[in-house]
Amino acid sequence: TVIKHFHFNVEWKTVTRVCHTKPVLTVNGKYPGPTIAVHEGDNVQVIVTNKIARNTTIHWHGVRQLRTGWADGPAYITQCPIGGGKTYTYNFTVVDQRGTLWWHAHFSWQRASVYGAFIIYPRMPFPFSPPLIQAQIPIIFGEWWNGDIEAVENEMTLYGGGPNSSDAYTINGLPGPLYPCSIKDTFIQTIERGKTYLLRIINAALNDELFFAIANHTLTVVEIDAVYTKPFTTSSILITPGQTTNVLLTADQIPDSNGMFVMAARPYLTSVFPFDNSTTIGFLKYKTTTTSRSQTNKPPMPPYTLPSNLPEMKDTLFATQFLNNLRSLGSKDYPCRVPKKIDKRVITTISLNLQDCPLNQTCKGYSNKRFYASMNNQSFIRPSVSILESHYRNLKSEFTSDFPEMPPNTFNYTGVNPVTENMNTEFGTKVLEVPFGTRLEIVLQDTNFLNPENHPIHVHGHNFFIVGSGFGNFDAEKDPKGYNVVDPPERNTVAVPMGGWAAIRLYADNPGVWFVHCHLEEHTSWGLAMGFIVKSGKEASQSLLPPPSDLPPC
Ligand code: C2O
Ligand code: CU
């Protein structure tokens, strides 16, 4: 095994965007953070030193962490935070995974600026025999707040609502010229006519699912969440926070005099007000041989026309069709490992819940109430000792293994006033516990209209297969008959349709404690999360490894 070392210093750095200058939390002073690039099978050791007077942790989003849950990163789930001045080495091996993933802080809302690409080069050549790839280009979407991110987080958690919109979306940290003072902060990628490029697209935004398109060009999707797909060509893509998408782009257009094509990302929302409706743009710049034209990387003069192939903000039809086109490869070298039979089906609602405002407080949710969020009416509270540690040491005081499993067809969102529904939220730390090797199906049922976005549910420690999804209520009799157990998409984050459901299947073959949560940061803060324990199996190779000696104490 090859060992790859990286040094991450979590530190402040003064950054200016959209006419505002503020201290931003970074890794090694970079915003966005450095790219980690390794090979399949490598042992990765990231020495994280916390140089801020706050806690922090780092999560390797989508890396399976086989038996190494101690290196997964979510605060109070698999570790206690790394305190100011302290160091912790994340030590894990990348087993049987290849493609684009990413890393981000997993403490509070620090991932607003602490994130970067995590690239795993394959051992075998790409299965889709593309033309020679000229270059691989990370495209990371993020969000910028003019204000202090801790203040934004406090507003959301203390008052249970309020404006959640950021001040700009960004491409590789750059807002682009549609925002004030941002012409110089525009992402421009130079390409050569006739060549093919691999774009590694990551949605690191805190709270928004995004459409992305490049004017006049099509994109061929070849991979999602570091799993190859059957290639398909599309005019634009949809990507939810937490997800990654690799696409091939061929520079097959004849550029006009400025040689530039606009690329753009904007949110997909089912209702627009009062959420952010702004757009980030960047440019593809065709290299020219004409010496008369300047080759400086400046955007062209305004006005800027958005790509006509960029879907409208409420384009649910495009969103649904795009997601239905994603299929795993299911080839000899990359067989689809979807469980065809299951040992257990867990149905869980996911919802936003309005609660009366506590006395003497101001609430900003909706008619002076505040929001919580929940799964099966359990609003998740982080314990004070990490669940993994409690589990490993058999300390049962910090959590209980009685996550309620809702029987089918006992919920109904149709016609129910979403504001009055689910008022009986319970608060606590209940986890779902399954034996090693369980073939598990989880049906995620969205229950209200209040939310204008899909919920991107992310499962740590496992990839899963999306065997079915639909609008309305899941029907335990009828819907499983329509499941795709041949070539369903395999991912680590699924956008559960607004007012609908998604069924995912996985092999619970990674012993440890795993976080399952909405990747919209505000929903996680309100409790849209659960813990998931896979017990160790009988064989030595089926058990959780002991904790590293430098694991941060609680
Ligand atoms: Cu990308 Cu629990 O996170
Ligand atoms: Cu959500």
Automatic annotation (TrEMBL):
Pfam families: Cu-oxidase, Cu-oxidase_2, Cu-oxidase_3. It catalyses: 4 hydroquinone + O2 = 4 benzosemiquinone + 2 H2O. It is an enzyme of class 1 (oxidoreductase). Its EC number is 1.10.3.2. CDD domains: CuRO_1_LCC_plant, CuRO_2_LCC_plant, CuRO_3_LCC_plant. One of its GO terms (biological process) is lignin catabolic process. The keyword Metal-binding applies. Its cofactor is Cu cation. InterPro entries: Cu-oxidase-like_N (IPR011707), Cu-oxidase_2nd (IPR001117), Cu-oxidase_C (IPR011706), Cu-oxidase_fam (IPR045087), Cu_oxidase_CS (IPR033138), Cu_oxidase_Cu_BS (IPR002355), Cupredoxin (IPR008972), CuRO_1_LCC (IPR034288). It is found in: Secreted, Extracellular space, Apoplast. It comes from the Eukaryota. Keywords: Apoplast, Copper, Glycoprotein, Lignin degradation, Metal-binding, Oxidoreductase, Repeat, Secreted, Signal. This is Laccase.
